[in-house]
Amino acid sequence: MPCRLCSEAVAPLASEPPLDGYERCESCGYVQLRRELLPTPEAERARYLLHRNDPAEPGYRAWLGAFMDAFEPYLRAGVEILDFGSGPVPALGSVAAERGYGYAPYDPFFAPDGDWRSRAWEAIAVHEVAEHLAEPAAAFAELAAALAPGGVLALRTRYQPEGLEGFASWRYRQDSTHVGFFSSDCLGRAMNRLGLIRLYDDGREIAIYRREGSRA
Ligand SMILES: [Zn+2]
After folding, report:
1. What radius of gyration, in Å, describes the C-alpha atoms of the chain?
2. Would you say residue 4 lies in a domain?
3. In Å, how far from its chain's centre is CA 56?
4. 137 Cα–ligand 1 center, Å
5. Is residue 3 part of a domain?
6. What's the CA-to-centroid distance between 112 and ligand 1, angstroms?
7. CATH no. for residue 202?
């Protein structure tokens, strides 16, 4: 099975548990859970309902706020943000609304209206979603196509730790619905292939990309 991000060859990450279920792309460095280990949609949905998602909880609010702090310098005031993979509670929406932005959630399980595909978006958030994507190449291509010229895409997904030991003990990996892991570089290359240019990267988990062209 090839890399689900760039289609190049993958090799087993390790031969022993707990990492024997993963493959690493020899070309782009993406690490993916082997296809036969991907969760079923039913298991995925059940797990999402357990995610921490109360926007009134101060720690969670601050964490969402940090994402918006990174995103805001690239946003036009009041613009409507598409939240791709919004989850069971559109928590990012309440923070965005407090800051004066419009908000449109989309989620294959919880807000499945596909109308967003018929619009060109100036701003798209992919917040803690990329690590869940079973087909990241297809999803990123769809998102890039949904961006208006000059539109911005903000992602938050925790970058891979250094070394196999770091990976083995990494709690982020242990969520059963986290099926693919990026580095800053591997994410950047995937976006560049789609014509998106990096504007910002915190080196840890948040990156902002812009589609070429000027805003209308
Ligand atoms: Zn790859």
Report:
1. 17
2. no
3. 23
4. 10
5. no
6. 29
7. 3.40.50.150
- Look up the pTM and report it: 0.96
* Nearby residues for ligand 1 (ion, Cβ within 5 Å): 3, 5-6, 8, 25, 27-28, 30
Which residue range forms the structural domain that includes residue 50? 10-211
pLDDT number for residue 214: 83
User: CB atoms < 10 A from the CB of 174, how many?
Assistant: 10
Number of domains in the chain: 1
Residue 176 lies in a domain: yes
- Residue 133 pLDDT: 98
Q: In whole angstroms, what separates CA 69 from the centre of its chain? A: 17
- What is the distance in A from the centroid of ligand 1 to the CA of 214? 30
* Amino acid residing at 189: R
Q: Calculate how far, in angstroms, residue 36's C-alpha sits from the geometric centre of ligand 1.
A: 18
Task: For residue 40, give both structure tokens.
Answer: 């079923």
Rounded distance from Cα 187 to ligand 1 centre (Å): 10
Q: What is the mean pLDDT of each run of 10 residues along the chain (216 residues)?
A: 96 96 97 97 92 83 96 98 95 95 96 95 98 98 97 98 95 96 98 98 98 83
